[in-house]
């Protein structure tokens, strides 16, 4: 599986896969009721098609989501800087465009709130920091421009940790984002507002970004789908470091097909981004259905013994290897070389924060949370040889991963080492009894994969006995984003875990 087009027609077909996994699937339970349910729980792909066929108007769709936000968002706190008037005006313009016979883009009329670290022209972009609380950009970031050019209607922003640092979404500007499956638990981060908004039915699609798991961890915590694409698949502009390949933008959605739909408009080269990949995004809109017979799968429950994983998470994930066997895959327990990945990630991350926020720490040390200040200080202690060694080690790990994926088509691993934790905590202080000393220690199962420079998909995999979501990480070789999505779609169809929605209205007290 060396390229995006592999798995296009392999095996017995998606129908056989769905039948094979039916016995272990989880059907929809706890689905909210209400007049907005049809429009706010519909798949984005289907909803966009209904708008194009003029079976429902963009105004109706946006109004339903705004009503849902009014009822649910005060408890979840996923969407911030809401602009209902602007959204309704844009929806009306989208309807009028269709009425005049205008062409509809792939996302025509779909509401979306953009991650609050992504620049949006004319709307506050705070980065979750008091230092940026009143910042209103005069331009759109490239992905924001592309999503709106495809017809999406901007409704607001989604909440983030302070400067996107950490995989738990809280900040002094907007407060804590809570998990729709349990309002006392974290929604993850840094794209936590995006994941919670999807799970709560506040929007059908969401953008995000991922350095150490910021698309994948919140997707796992909120029972939605998050894709960390191959670096360069979704170009960044403007960017403080245009050569950066550790942080990547990517899509989130409630289904794999919807994530692929959003990727199709986010992806594609841009000459202003020197690491952007050639090739248009449109192929990601093609059907993902395929059989998995003969697909070579590696499964690692703990990344080769390198990370602790809580027993309740492991108990959910270990049976998933059998699902892939029933789908016709050849499954073996194996793991790529990850020796040195911890040091690589920590060095490059610390360097990133020092360059991006060092001046802010000097000017306003009291305005940054202690964990972020610590990370910046770690960057200041680095030397030139430290960075050189990290870069060389990352190159070695990438070459090792390329070799690993000549033997396997995909790797299965935990997304997160823990289930959603107490929202009052900054991070879990232990994992399976092992102390976690910093705010990033518990994220290794995601950030080790980041170092490899490969695509990684978080897809719903089931629930703990307490009803908390757990995600499965599906990893592929470099640039095989489409193949990873196809494997994820087949697994999704076989299990149906993502169809279990939170009973969020039942959790809200009035």
Automatic annotation (TrEMBL):
Gene3D superfamilies: Amidase signature (AS) domain. PROSITE patterns: AMIDASES. Residues 1-41 are annotated as: Disordered. Residues 19-41 have a biased composition (Low complexity). Residues 60-485 form the Amidase domain. It comes from the Bacteria. One of its GO terms (molecular function) is catalytic activity. This is Amidase. It comes from Streptomyces paromomycinus (Streptomyces rimosus subsp. paromomycinus).
């Amino acid at each position: 599986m060396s390229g995006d087009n592999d798995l296009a027609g392999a095996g017995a077909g998606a129908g056989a896969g769905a039948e094979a996994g039916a016995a272990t699937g989880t059907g929809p339970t706890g689905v909210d009721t209400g007049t907005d349910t049809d429009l706010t729980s519909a798949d984005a792909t289907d909803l966009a098609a209904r708008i194009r066929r003029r079976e429902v108007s963009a105004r109706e769709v946006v109004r339903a989501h705004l009503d849902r936000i009014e009822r649910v968002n005060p408890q979840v706190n996923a969407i911030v800087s809401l602009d209902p008037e602007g959204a309704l005006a844009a929806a009306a313009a989208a309807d009028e465009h269709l009425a005049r016979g205008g062409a509809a883009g792939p996302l025509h009329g779909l509401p979306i709130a953009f991650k609050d670290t992504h620049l949006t022209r004319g709307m506050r972009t705070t980065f979750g920091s008091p230092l940026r609380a009143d910042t209103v950009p005069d331009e759109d970031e490239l992905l924001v421009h592309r999503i709106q050019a495809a017809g999406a209607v901007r409704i607001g922003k989604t909440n983030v940790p302070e400067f996107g640092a950490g995989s738990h979404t809280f900040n002094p500007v907007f407060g804590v984002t809570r998990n729709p499956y349990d309002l006392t638990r974290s929604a993850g981060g840094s794209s936590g507002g995006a994941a919670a908004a999807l799970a709560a039915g506040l929007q059908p699609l969401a953008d995000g970004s991922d350095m150490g798991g910021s698309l994948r961890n919140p997707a796992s915590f909120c029972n939605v789908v998050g894709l960390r694409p191959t670096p360069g698949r979704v170009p960044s502009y403007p960017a403080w470091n245009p050569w950066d390949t550790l942080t990547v933008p990517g899509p989130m959605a409630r289904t794999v097909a919807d994530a692929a739909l959003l990727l199709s408009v986010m992806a594609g080269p841009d000459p202003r981004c020197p690491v952007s990949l050639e090739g248009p995004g449109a192929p990601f809109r093609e059907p993902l259905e395929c059989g998995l017979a003969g697909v070579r799968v590696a499964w690692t429950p703990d990344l080769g013994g390198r990370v602790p994983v809580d027993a309740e998470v492991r108990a959910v994930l270990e049976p998933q290897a059998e699902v892939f066997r029933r789908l016709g895959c050849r499954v073996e327990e194996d793991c790529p070389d990850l020796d040195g990945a911890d040091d690589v990630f920590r060095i490059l991350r610390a360097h990133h924060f020092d360059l991006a926020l060092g001046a802010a720490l000097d000017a306003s040390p009291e305005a940054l949370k202690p964990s972020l200040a610590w990370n910046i200080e770690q960057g200041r202690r680095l030397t030139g040889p430290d960075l050189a060694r990290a870069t060389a080690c990352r190159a070695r790990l990438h070459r090792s991963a390329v070799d690993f994926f000549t033997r396997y088509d995909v790797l299965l691993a935990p997304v997160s080492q823990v289930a959603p934790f107490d929202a009052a905590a900054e991070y879990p202080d232990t994992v399976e009894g092992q102390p976690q000393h910093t705010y990033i220690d518990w994220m290794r199962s995601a950030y080790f994969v980041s170092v490899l420079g490969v695509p990684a998909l978080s897809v719903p995999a089931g629930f703990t006995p307490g009803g908390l979501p757990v995600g499965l990480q599906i990893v592929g070789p470099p640039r095989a984003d489409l193949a990873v999505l196809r494997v994820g779609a087949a697994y999704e169809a076989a299990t149906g875990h993502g169809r279990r929605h939170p009973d969020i209205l039942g959790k809200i007290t009035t």
